[in-house]
Records
---
Amino acid sequence: MNHSPTNLIEIFLNSEKADGAILQNIFDHYQRVTMSVKAINENDQHFKTTDAEACFLDFQRTWVLGQALKSFLRTKAKKPSKILHMLEAGSGTGIMAIFAAILNPNIQIICLEINPLSCQKSQTFIQALKLSNRIKVFNLDATKLDAEQLPEAKDFDLIFSETLSGGLFFEPQLQITQHIKKFLKTNGFLIPQKIELFLHLEDPWQKEPLTQKIKYAEIDFLNYEKNTITADINLGILRSGSPNIVVITSELTLTENFKITTDPKFTNFLNKAIILIPKSQQKIFQINDIVNLQMQYQAGANTSSCQIILRKL
Ligand SMILES: C[S@@+](CC[C@H](N)C(=O)[O-])C[C@H]1O[C@@H](n2cnc3c(N)ncnc32)[C@H](O)[C@@H]1O
């Protein structure tokens, strides 16, 4: 049976688990309709359109994010007849805004996308789905958004942004949410809500980690004001060895019912972040030693700029 792209999106969102084949079909439609969009030089873009497209096709990621939107739009948005205003920062292919528009006929969405090619392709996709009256995409930097740049609504019931990777390295989630949270209504809802970060030490010659996994940060996106992330923790050595990497894993709370944890089955999203311990600090530790790890990095920075001090207590 031939389903329309809108039907396929409904089927994808109503499936019990992520169905990569359905998502591939939706993506094929996106590719067909956006083929005619002229290439724009993206050399100055940190995040290419093909990266946003790879995110779309990361079916586990796209499905869980869709479920979080669905749970908000079905439970939190209690009055179904009321117009809801949503802001999406970093909208890429537009797929999340499209999910929201299909899930709720009363939602009006503004998308901000810094990459002009992604912006044009998503506009074409949205138009092909006949959703341009409810989803507007602007080629703007979400970390610099000014109220005057917003056409109508200046405060939103829902702000959604997925511009992150594991450990809050590489992408500007924190800078974006810190800037745009002023556009959230009192009692408005933010997705994702928080991220918890964990670390442990590994020795490449040993299968098992040298230490247990310890939480070093809990970042509630609405209330975290700093732009650095720090850790100062003591770790017990579980087996002797010489750690040369700090492994960071993440647990992202989208809504109270939907969490995503670093998991090798997710292709890219919330991947492990790996920090090399400087050679001068690589030492052999014995079982039951206690080591202290101090770590500091800028949210969104490259893992290589993370500063660490590891010493035996
Ligand atoms: C990981 S992709 C996610 C796309 C989409 N939200 C989704 O879930 O499929 C992040 C997008 O954010 C965009 N982006 C990054 N920094 C931005 C900024 N400061 N302002 C607006 N968009 C930004 C990137 O160009 C990219 O398209």
---
Amino acid sequence: MTGYDADVVVVGFGGAGAAAALSAAEHGVEVLVVDRDTRGGNTALSGGSLRLRPDVERAARYLSTLSLDRKAAAVHRSMLDGCRDLGGWLVRLGAEIEEMNDAFVTNTLPRVLASPYPTIAGSEALGPRFRVRGRDGQSGGDAVWELLRDAVLRHPRITVRTPAVAVELVRAGQGRVDGVRLREADGVHGVRARHGVVLACGGFEYDRRLQQNYLGFSLPAFGWPGGNDGSGVRLAQGVGAALWHMTSIASVLGYQLPGLEAAVRHSMPDLGYVYVDQECARFVDETGVDFHAIPMDLLRMNPRTFRRDRMPSFLVFDEATRAAGPIADTYLTPYRDEFRWSRDNRAEIERGWIAAADTPRELASTLGLDPDALAATVERYNAGAAAGADPLGRAAADMRPLRGPFYGVALWPCLINTQGGPRRDATCRILDPGGEPIPGLYGAGELGSMWTQLYPGAGNLTEAIVTGRTAGAAAAAALAPPAGPAPATGTVTPAVTDALAAFVADLRAGDLPETALRAARRCVLDQLGCAVFGSTLPWSALVRDYVRDEGSAPRALVWGSGLRASATLAALANATAGHAFEIDDLHAGACFHPGR
Ligand SMILES: Cc1cc2nc3c(=O)[nH]c(=O)nc-3n(C[C@H](O)[C@H](O)[C@H](O)COP(=O)(O)OP(=O)(O)OC[C@H]3O[C@@H](n4cnc5c(N)ncnc54)[C@H](O)[C@@H]3O)c2cc1C
């Protein structure tokens, strides 16, 4: 490996980075993982829920409706296939896996619905949620993280280097990404990657400028302050990557509290509560809408005032609910080792985080709201609760008149994670704006996620590990390892493919004898004729539809149609058409297909 620091360099040591490193190492290459710290990113703070048993065909249709992104169909499919393989892989790493029971859905407020977007058919095809049981009884993302981290740390072919912040990608000849510049304690150093670099360094939960540019606002986040700062987006842009899904986020409600940079998650112990906007009006069925979907109602812009006047909104709850349990989940935050929310919310009232008052009017004054408006809203809600009827559709069984004293706190849509980043294909190669892979560059995890506006839950962590595995394997295979056993006779390795491609790329017509040129011309003509006929066959039409759906830059002609696509996609369609009715593979003497 002279001149190289590793075969594969992985930027980011969260779930995606750990999975990428393990997968690359499983393919026999040397891996270097770099991160600014060792806390495990969003992965370690997550709820830890995973999808391991989707019904692939139906789930693919569901995802295509959910995402509204037809370019992502192949990416969805690859992720769903990867889900089915994921449980077995985690078990081989030593995981104990359990299905999350129904109590998770029924006992959580706001609710985690089995079908977050009930008007879109097919959500059940994603299958149940699963989680990893931790050694010390944890069952959140910390259990997943510890499993992956420990497997990485004990792997003989993986080296972890921290603290090391990736500041720039380095390109070699022909534009191949072959290294990263790292900022470390003693200065900036370059590390070189023989096969390629995997970007697995999370989203832009802590980059307000990127959020303002793409979302139109910036939000508090649940992740480690200073962790995912959008550097993955900038690194990829620096080498010409296309971006996608930059306006999409996963969000749930939370609190922004004085002295805490990260948000704290909202979670209710009982039913005595409502949400109101800045005019003190209720706006959503607080218990009947999935917790991932409720933030959409807070994010909207008021079409009359052109203000986002539900940011923040306010949680108003009553005495019985205060006494029933904490209104926050401090386990899924960076502060879980520093403090736990008090069981009766008293400590937080004393700290001034929660406003308390005997009447809705007094509460409104403390929160800076209109006292008459809040009093009227509580009165209307209580009358509806007594009658079992709610104009917003809250179920009668979920309503109970609010009784004082009353409590209130500002409520924000908070970032679980952003979804945007460099666009990748089904094998996790990062693409340029023309849809062509940037050689040597791979992406995984929430950076450039496949998820878009409608996030169904338990999707990002699963995607992080699945795409990490895919990216690690693809990077490892980009070139043959320099050492190791010789390939078996007849095996085509990537190194042979590279050598063949380089030979063809360098070849000039003048280098060839006339007889070879004549034979080549006849072969090209033969291939073209076969392809023109082959393009009329149904299986060629399927591939052509796929190429059209991928929507790449119109650079090369797809034979037998007026369609233009990127060179690689056009080559796929044309090669399929050329081989659609050929019988060359049947003649033993003429058999040249590398797969034979
Ligand atoms: C509170 C919370 C709950 C969640 N619950 C769930 C859930 O239950 N199910 C689910 O599917 N998803 C959940 N998610 C989302 C999910 O956890 C993440 O999207 C996923 O884990 C992301 O994994 P990742 O490896 O892509 O990023 P991360 O795990 O965030 O790792 C990225 C790493 O990159 C490092 N890094 C960033 N920039 C650089 C740089 N320039 N140089 C070096 N290192 C860098 C960071 O330090 C970090 O360690 C939750 C997220 C949060 C915050």
